Fold this sequence. Notes:
The complex is a heterodimer of chains A (95) and B (491).
Chain A: H1 5-14, H2 21-38, H3 73-77, E1 83-84, E2 87-88
Chain B: H1 6-14, H2 20-38, E1 41-43, H3 46-61, E2 72-76, H4 103-111, E3 114-119, H5 153-160, E4 167-171, H6 177-183, E5 186-189, E6 209-214, H7 217-227, E7 264-268, H8 278-293, E8 297-301, H9 309-324, H10 343-354, H11 357-369, H12 375-396, E9 402-406, H13 422-426, H14 433-438, E10 442-449, E11 455-462, H15 467-480
Helix pairs in contact in B: 2-3, 7-15, 9-11, 9-12
Amino acid sequence: xxxxxxxxxxxxxxxxxxxxxxxxxxxxxxxxxxxxxxxxxxxxxxxxxxxxxxxxxxxxxxxxxxxxxxxxxxxxxxxxxxxxxxxxxxxxxxx
Amino acid sequence: xxxxxxxxxxxxxxxxxxxxxxxxxxxxxxxxxxxxxxxxxxxxxxxxxxxxxxxxxxxxxxxxxxxxxxxxxxxxxxxxxxxxxxxxxxxxxxxxxxxxxxxxxxxxxxxxxxxxxxxxxxxxxxxxxxxxxxxxxxxxxxxxxxxxxxxxxxxxxxxxxxxxxxxxxxxxxxxxxxxxxxxxxxxxxxxxxxxxxxxxxxxxxxxxxxxxxxxxxxxxxxxxxxxxxxxxxxxxxxxxxxxxxxxxxxxxxxxxxxxxxxxxxxxxxxxxxxxxxxxxxxxxxxxxxxxxxxxxxxxxxxxxxxxxxxxxxxxxxxxxxxxxxxxxxxxxxxxxxxxxxxxxxxxxxxxxxxxxxxxxxxxxxxxxxxxxxxxxxxxxxxxxxxxxxxxxxxxxxxxxxxxxxxxxxxxxxxxxxxxxxxxxxxxxxxxxxxxxxxxxxxxxxxxxxxxxxxxxxxxxxxxxxxxxxxxxxxxxxxxxxxxxxxxxxxx
Lengths: 95, 491
């Protein structure tokens, strides 16, 4: 299989990464090389194999529903790009 | 102090032959002298570091001493350390002062270790040559025109050049073991879940594991004693009873000449075929012979699905990365673009500017394989291959105690040689990736030299939680050989 230029632009939108037409063209060639490598997987019949999502079969732990974190808003916001009055500032979303 | 083991450094502190401040100063001076050329450290903060050393000296004076108290340790810049710039070698985090400590960092702090600085790496740990770093490539101390491997290239170069006694690192597909092989070090990636991922910036969460780059297996065991341990803040941390990883560092055999008597070493026949450079194959074969001399029995094992490990990894790791790295959006921390019209553009421009090309490539691969219509063909397929690889190891461990082969197909390659060809770069990790997919502990130890006098690594994969046994096997090999004690010329 190979990715079309439109598909490169589509996944760039999904990934929220701005890509110029020129970059998309270069990326397309590299992604197609990588997908040729990935495609080697398809040679093996895995119909009867159970997918393995994790290195160890784990059951998720539960914990008591109690507060474990204390308020560190000022510390955390001291490294934020833009804050005002304790709020993170981003462009207006709702008109 | 240059070549002393951690045990020897610790003993000299306990005997008051040297203070932690003096020892730390010694390594800071070496960093000041050599780092411009090596580029192994991203951040050095002498004031903070020496304050920690002074605190360690106060602890030692009171007799409150743990094995690493007062020892300077370099940390890969993937571990958040409160008050320290923590960049993951990315422009995205080039202004990120971590507001909290990773579990690993707090363990070292509790032990009284001294933080020597933050080491360079491939951006977000994505790379095998340390050339994707926003802070520039790291040089291999054995040959400054060559790569040190990656992604933990800065940690490897720092220890190999003896500007740090030991360093932490992380391994998602080989990022501890491949640099260890390329710089003549001992590298240990523990069983998945043994070292907490809390505060370790995530790349591929089902594969990422913290570990160590050191001058010997004995040093690695001491450091693992500090790093390993259950942490409720990491949902995949394993509730495993604490172990002393130094406990087996002695002969378990009645015959001192045959310390590995009874050990069954599985040799992966697929790893000695086409693709393995002859100058690497030779020293690895010689190491197998050495194991036999030490009393081990060699058995042939087969891991037929391992050849699909690289393709499966380049689906699973990017898929997890695309999800993990979605948190970098320019809203709460990290890089934000200067100009944008709306929220969507703030995200897409901040990410386009903040991420380097390899990171973007992997995010795009991940977004694609997880997208509607492709999920089963790629992501589920890769997860099935992952199962086959884990099954191969399970079958091998029915026949042997440990699986061995080469760590990397070649010795260190020249800077720039593979930087523009992602697929060639990815194939560097062909022997190391299977252990990550299965979650098994693995090591690389120096076993000789190949072309241009460059180090060669022997790869060992153990069964789950076999770290102590594997460290002893490496230790016995290192008692009988001196490859691990060789340092680059001029050091």
